């Protein structure tokens, strides 16, 4: 299975990724850490900068992103994404709340990306 965003990737993004795109989701919709330039994961990391929490360690080139999952009937909590390089891979992605954590699934990833795409302005944090 490939996420919707990887199926319709723009030409300029394909060129940036040198056409080596490998979606971050297996056929069953589970997360695959052997990925490269997955467009849904890129979107979630970008949205975390505006709507969630993003930390980038300059020396180690690693980052962690956290983004609230919108209300739904499947899983409520946060997506946490870790990346160890500035490249296009995502090393780990989990769904977490106070009582459990699970690997990120394609349905939650796409639902969350769609939700934040439809927002007009970042949430004010104080």
Folded structure, characterized:
The protein is built from four helices and five strands, in the order H-H-H-E-E-E-E-E-H. The protein is of the alpha+beta class and 126 residues long. It has one domain. A five-stranded antiparallel sheet has the order 1-2-3-4-5, covered by helices on one side. A hairpin with a 4-residue loop joins strand 1 and strand 2. Helix 3 (39-51) crosses helix 4 (106-117). The radius of gyration is 14 Å and the shape is globular. The N and C termini lie far apart (39 Å). The mean pLDDT is 87.
Mean pLDDT: 87
Biggest beta-sheet profile: 5 strands, antiparallel
Number of helices: 4
Strand adjacency order, main sheet: 1-2-3-4-5
Radius of gyration: 14 Å
The backbone outline, from C-alpha atoms, is globular
What class, by secondary structure content? alpha+beta
Report the β-strand fraction as a percent range: 15-25%
Domain tally? 1
Uncertain residue ranges: none
Care to count the β-strands? Answer: 5
Write a concise keyword list for the protein shown above.
single chain; 126 residues; alpha+beta; 5-stranded antiparallel sheet; 22% strand
Summarize the SSE layout with pairings.
Elements: H1 4-7, H2 11-16, H3 39-51, E1 53-57, E2 62-68, E3 78-83, E4 92-97, E5 100-103, H4 106-117
Antiparallel strand pairs: 1-2, 2-3, 3-4, 4-5
What would a concise description of this structure say?
Helices cover 28% and strands 22% of the residues.
